[in-house]
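Per your request, structure below.
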C-alpha cells in the first residue's frame, strides 16, 4: 500500500513561490507518498516567457531531485530542445527521473499547438516502480481511446492536468471510466486556478472515488490487493 497525495494548486506568477509550496508539501507528507501535481504547476503556460519558464524548470527539477527519495513525485515542466518547446511530464523517485513523457495530444482550443511541439506517441508506455505498473496521460490526452489502449494493464494511471471548468463533468466521467475499464487506480491532479475544473480525485478499480474541490491537498492510498481482486473477479486480460 502506498499513500497518495494530489496537489490541487493555483498558479502564482512568481515561479519560486510555486516551487516553495510543492517543497513544503513534500516535507510534510509521509516518506512513502505518491505525490501528483497539476500540469505546468510551476510556471503555468507562460507563453510570453517561455525561455525563462524552461530555465526555471531546469532549476526546479534539480532542487526536487535532491529531496525526493522514497516518495514519488509526478509533475510536468516546460522544456526546450533545439528550437522546440514541449510540455514534459517527469516522474521522480530515488533522487532520479525514472520516466519522461512529452505531451502528444495538444489542446488546440488553448492554442498549445501554436507554441509547443508534439511529443512522441511511442513514449506513452507503461513503466514500473517497486513492482507497480504505472501509465501517464497529460490532461487532454485522457480523451483518446487509442492512448488508453497503450496503457492497458497498468495498475495506476497518473493524470496531471489543467482542465477547464466548462468541461468538468467530462474530466470526472472519463477518469472514472478509465479506472473501471482498466481495473486500476486513476489519479487526477488538476489545477485550481480561475477557470479550471478542480476535480482532482483518486478513482479506484471498484468504482469508488475520493474527491474534494475545496481542498488544496487530497489524500488517499493505492492498494494493489484491490486491483488483483477486481481483475480476478472480472477477467478482462
Amino acid at each position: 500500500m502506498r499513500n497518495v497525495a494530489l496537489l490541487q494548486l493555483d498558479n502564482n506568477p512568481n515561479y519560486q513561490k510555486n516551487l516553495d509550496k510543492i517543497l513544503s508539501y513534500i516535507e510534510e507528507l509521509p516518506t512513502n507518498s505518491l505525490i501528483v501535481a497539476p500540469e505546468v504547476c510551476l510556471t503555468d503556460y507562460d507563453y510570453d516567457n517561455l525561455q525563462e519558464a524552461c530555465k526555471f524548470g531546469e532549476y526546479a527539477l534539480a532542487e526536487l531531485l535532491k529531496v525526493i527519495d522514497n516518495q514519488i513525485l509526478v509533475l510536468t515542466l516546460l522544456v526546450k530542445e533545439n528550437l522546440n518547446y514541449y510540455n514534459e511530464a517527469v516522474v521522480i523517485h530515488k533522487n532520479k527521473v525514472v520516466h519522461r513523457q512529452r505531451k502528444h495530444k495538444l489542446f488546440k482550443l488553448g492554442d498549445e499547438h501554436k507554441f509547443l511541439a508534439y511529443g512522441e506517441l511511442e513514449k506513452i508506455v507503461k513503466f514500473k516502480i517497486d513492482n507497480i505498473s504505472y501509465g501517464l496521460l497529460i490532461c487532454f490526452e485522457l480523451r483518446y481511446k487509442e492512448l488508453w489502449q497503450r496503457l492497458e494493464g497498468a495498475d495506476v494511471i497518473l493524470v496531471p492536468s489543467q482542465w477547464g471548468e466548462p468541461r468538468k463533468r467530462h474530466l470526472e466521467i472519463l477518469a472514472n471510466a478509465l479506472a473501471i475499464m482498466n481495473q486500476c487506480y486513476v489519479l487526477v491532479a488538476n489545477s485550481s486556478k480561475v477557470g479550471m475544473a478542480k476535480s482532482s480525485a483518486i478513482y479506484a478499480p471498484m468504482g469508488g472515488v475520493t474527491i474534494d474541490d475545496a481542498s488544496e491537498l487530497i489524500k488517499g492510498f493505492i492498494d494493489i490487493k484491490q486491483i488483483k481482486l477486481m481483475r480476478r473477479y472480472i477477467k478482462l486480460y
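The chain has a mean pLDDT of 97.

Regards,
D.
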